[in-house]
Structure formats: C-alpha cells, structure tokens
Write a structure and sequence with these properties.
Elements (H helix, E strand, L loop, with lengths): L8 E5 L3 H11 L4 E7 L12 E8 L2 E7 L11 E6 L2 H13 L3 E2 L4 E3 L5 E6 H7 L4 H11 L7 H9 L1
Parallel strand pairs: 1-4, 5-8
Antiparallel strand pairs: 2-3, 3-4, 6-7, 7-8
Helix pairs in contact: 4-5
Length: about 160
C-alpha cells in the first residue's frame, strides 16, 4: 500500500467529483485518477454506494474530490495556476476548460464547468511583469489587463515597446 501524500488539496463538488477528475486527467499532463470511494452509508446529500470521494492528481498535485452536495461553491479565492510555455499550450488548456462548459474571465483566468478557477499563465507573462525594466513590465501588465486569454505575441510586443 502506498503512503498517502502529506498534503492533499480537497475540492468540494456537488456530485461531479469523478467527472471533473477524469476531465482534468484527460486535459493536463502528469494528471491521473486514482481510487474512487463509495459512501458506506447514506449521508445528507447522497445514498450508500454513491461516489463520495475521488483521489486524483492534477499537474502533479495530489487532490481529493469530495461530493459534499450543493452547500459550498468554488470561488476565485482558490485557483490552479498553470504555467504554459507558448501560445499553443495556452490555447489548448484555455480552450479545453472554456470549451467544456467553462467561462472566460480576465487576465488569463477562466472557470471550468464545475466553478473551479484556473489561471492559464504563459511563462513569458510572468517574466514580463517581473522584469527588471519597470517600463517594459508596465507595458506588459497594461496589455494583460485588456485580455481574457493571454496573447503571447501581444505581451512580447508590449515588452519591446
């Protein structure tokens, strides 16, 4: 038997933890679905035999999906930040999330159909706004503030001035 992770992110879902885990495992590398545990008895928002928890990994991060019912919703106070290498990778993740019932937000943020927030952040953006050149950093930051999905070429152009 393997030793459980010392720290696991527990994500509360209404009743779709397994569906979400399987979607994440399909979309992101170093992601997988592990054990699916069924409720040993009835509980306030489910019946004996319903999926209660799902062990899964997203981009190497151990997670537990808990089907706790509708009492609690995801918010932007928690998000996965995914560093992407180029526009193609940025587009792939963004389009997978938004195209599967999710919604766009601002500055590289989007939500999946379960309400979980994702920051799809090209590495060039992080490098741009942490640049040692304050004017270049401000130009890149100002460009980002006008975007939904990050446009790598526009960030690079803003950096150059």
């Amino acid at each position: 038997m393997s030793t459980p992770a010392r720290n696991t992110i527990c994500l509360w879902f209404d009743h779709e933890a397994e569906e979400a885990a399987r979607f994440y495992a399909q979309v992101f590398p170093d992601s997988s679905v592990g054990a699916v545990h069924r409720a040993p008895g009835d509980y306030p928002d489910g019946k004996q035999g319903d999926v209660l928890t799902v062990e899964f990994t997203v981009l190497g991060i151990p997670c537990l999906g808990l089907n706790g019912g509708p009492a609690f919703k995801h918010s932007e106070a928690f998000s996965f930040q995914v560093a992407t290498q180029d526009q193609a990778e940025t587009d792939r993740y963004w389009n997978a999330i938004v195209g599967n019932g999710g919604q766009e937000s601002q500055c590289g943020w989007c939500k999946d159909k379960w309400g979980l927030s994702w920051q799809i952040t090209p590495v060039v953006l992080t490098q741009a706004y942490t640049s040692a050149d304050p004017a270049a950093a401000k130009r890149a930051f100002d460009a980002m503030m006008t975007m939904r999905k990050i446009d790598v070429a526009a960030i690079e152009a803003a950096m150059r001035g």
